[in-house]
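Q: Got a minute? One more chain.
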Amino acid sequence: MLILGIESATQKAGVAIGGHEGVLALFESARGRRHVETLAPAIRFVCRQARIELREISVVAVDIGPGLFTGLRVGVATAKALAQALRVPMIGISSLDLLAFQVRFTPRVVVAVIDARRGELFYAFYRQVPGGVQRVSDLLVGSPGDLSSELLAMGEEYLLVGDGALRYREEFEEVQGVELVDQWMAHPSSAPLVQLAHARALREDWVNSWELEPLYLRKPDAEINWQTRHGGAA
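A: Always. Here it is, folded:
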């Protein structure tokens, strides 16, 4: 069973192919938000590197967010179009789950944190379980101050991962027991996307393309700006 994974929820865009042998080919780029121009050539590239034809793909997996609205929309639309064309099911995985999975070996409470812009963060809490991590909170939206207050109230040892944690590093480092993951793991990756999706595909835990929806958690910035200019109309 071969999985094609598409990741575009943040500034980093990535595509990977993998299966029971692990990740067979991987492409990732963090040069701005050029996801529209990047994804189609990246898909062709990983197919060549893995020496497979696109028609051999069994499942299309995609990061469903939360994240930056435009990149997230492009990735989900691309993944849906491919799944429909190939007539294969889909698996959607949260960007925060992907971040947390990358640091699954820590005994600390993992906090995955994505920069949501406008002074806000997308974040969630995780604890280590055999073989990975388990989310122990909802997917949340809040200010850096909101998250700092939660960390202080819980009073545990934390590992913060994600570009949102790094952007507000100074504030979080003032909280006792906090450690931050380096820049190279600041964005979700298509490699763990394929790994997690393959495990779910073996259980046939998937959906049809028309059933999959992105997790925005917040209105797009363009809509927020329009409402602000027009007196906050709903």
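A: The chain is about 35% helix and 25% strand.
Q: Perfect, thanks.
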